[in-house]
Amino acid sequence: VAKRLAGKTVVITGASSGIGRSTAFEFARTAAAAGGLKLVLTARRIDSLKQIATDIVAEVGEGNVKVLPVQLDVSKPDEVRGFVEKLPEEFKEIDVLVNNAGLVKGVARAPQIAEEDVNTMFNTNVTGLINMTQAILPIFLRRPNGGSGDIINIGSVAGREPYAGGSIYCATKAAIRSFTDSLRQELIASRVRVMEIDPGQVETEFSVVRFYGDKAKADAVYAGCDPLTPDDIAEVVVFVAGRRENVVVADTLIFPSHQA
Ligand code: NDP
Fold this sequence. Notes:
Elements: H1 2-5, E1 9-13, H2 18-32, E2 37-43, H3 46-60, E3 65-71, H4 77-86, E4 96-99, H5 115-141, E5 148-154, H6 167-186, E6 191-199, H7 205-209, H8 215-222, H9 230-241, E7 251-254
Parallel strand pairs: 1-2, 1-4, 2-3, 4-5, 5-6, 6-7
Helix pairs in contact: 2-3, 2-9, 4-5, 5-6
Bound molecules: NADPH dihydro-nicotinamide-adenine-dinucleotide phosphate.
Pfam family, one: adh_short
Keywords: NADP, Oxidoreductase
GO molecular function, one term: oxidoreductase activity, acting on the CH-OH group of donors, NAD or NADP as acceptor
């Protein structure tokens, strides 16, 4: 796996915390054994990204990874459009895009959800993911044999099993599933792999955000649960990216054993 990933350039959205952050570390650790790779870490919180970049280099060694932190709000089409163009030359030849950025704005019944929250969830989780994909696909499609590269979309169990109070978030994650499936079919004759990973409950900042920052409420709901860690998902992301180039791990559902 290290040899397959070595030398690649990996872009991760939402890399400033949780699953995205762990995924950055996991790519760096895995590829370090074979000479390393390049990471482009994106999110809105640039200070967190810079700290993560420093920590990754400190862990795997300067010669084994190159990390570029880039402030990017995926919900802003103009920022996404300019993203590839502004990359330094040595990071432009992207091989892997991990579309991980996502959020939930509160859990409420549909009639109570503010229009602003609906728009924020769709603009980030769905339109942001689509815009990132469209920005990077031309790089993949310029390559021989119809193109090559990996698009790994982070969906959710919520996209498969909607729940009361989660209507908008669930709808965004269902939209990701549809988009991912259609895109995979459109690119079937190429070497571009379009893959989706759907986590169940993972212990991240997300768990608290879901309850508008009310940690006590989040703790009460999650009491007795043994959630996955961000590293559990990161290992799967790197696993699918590290398969032989004609192996497509198209659709992965991963949840803690207590979660029915
Ligand atoms: P976190 O809240 O820890 O991470 C979310 C990441 O998304 C942050 O890095 C955040 O960075 C980034 N982000 C949010 N909005 C934007 C934006 N507009 N532009 C760019 N980046 C943005 O949660 P997780 O790690 O848990 O979430 C990662 C993904 O996993 C999400 O898509 C989520 O839906 C999904 N997921 C999570 C589950 C869980 O139980 N935790 C379960 C199933 C799926 P910043 O604020 O710096 O911009």
